[in-house]
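Board notes (copied after class):
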Amino acid sequence: MEDFSNYQDIFGQLRLLKSYSHILLCFPVADSSLRESITEALESATVKVTAVFPWLTGKVINEGSGPGNSGLFKIASCPRWAPPNTILRVKDCSDECPSYAEILKGDGSPQLLDPEILAPCVAFPQSYQETESDPACVAAIQANFIEGGLLLDFACQHNMMDASGMLQFVHLVAKAMHGEEFLPVEIKEGNQDRRNMVRLLGPDEPFADHSNFQRPSLLKSQKVPQVPAHQGEWCFFRFTAQKLAELKSIASDPAAFDPSVSFISTNDAVTAFIWKRISAARLRRLNNPDAFSKFTRAVDVRSTLGVAPEYMGHMVYNSFSTLTFQELDQAPLSFLASLMRKNLKNDVTEHAVRSFVTLLANTPDKTTLMYGGDMNKVTDVGFTSIAHSKLYSADFGIIGKTEMIRRPHFIPKTTTVYLFPKTESGDIESLICVSEEDMKELKADEEWSDYAKVMG
């Protein structure tokens, strides 16, 4: 039995992350006779990856939970997935799913991608209850063969790996399928001892203000709900490269910039635009201009802490922006983009991140802390971007490059916005979940429709 105790960190101990992140890669497979060869290539690649990164075959356990204490998440050895077994699951879904052609015709609409069929485990925000007979895997790959294609779902336990860690896992599988060797830095950082990755504050160092992360305890209710209420609607939207350039140009007008900002990124521009238009849709419906909207932006803090990008553990912090609906409605896009850039610079510092991790280490009931804190599903927006990822350029050997990147149609989580990897042509697709009423208003918003195309 392997000892995986060196993978127990502090950063990944948020109790509400007890779930899975997923990413679904879609590949055309015109010749069904290739299925056996593809399966063999996937099996070989998976074995190669897990041989070098054996902790990926482990199970996630929680120890020490009880009254007032949410416990600690750890990786333990698990024979179910350790060699000669595998974390890969292969499934013929030809009779259960739409064909690849139908999925492409429907622009990969979430409603076409049933997670009960395509995914090996639940997804955030839905939690799970592990047992001895049904342990929680660290990672899983499910290869779903459908008529004319392959839908490859990667799932990673969210306490153990953030989005960047999951993307690195996918990158390693692609390299293995393409016959490439792993770089020494990939091996070193992927197997990095996580116990002291973040230097905690000393007794004389002041804490930063982390009130935005605080939320009511879930331990007092005796049981953390595994399945949140099903509310909201998922929809994909596409921003073409041309429309992204137009938004960047509009948002780059320095006349309305916050005085402390001299530059905004394309990500700042599209982020500000999404917040502004979702808030406009909500303002029309709620008619409450004085209501505050909180925008939380997930930030990979590897570079902030001097951690290598190949590190596969949890390294996420938040930047916060808060305005009233009326302020959002009246503010120029360039002001909002510059405000987000300013808040990113001010919120995400080495001291702030170390302070948060120290607070997390010192808090027995970690259900009282969460990214975004206590989110208001009527007014707030939680934002995550992996648009910087080069995943569309990754070559998976026998199956080539992915033609479409999606997420199975898991339960709705209103307030959620994801930016997906940029395509090779420069387009970015966004997966948004808001209430059905807000989605109807958003799709009817003329300014939104000028820049964002509904997919499906």
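Comment from the instructor: The chain has 13 helices and 15 strands. Residues 87 and 140 are 5 Å apart (CA to CA).
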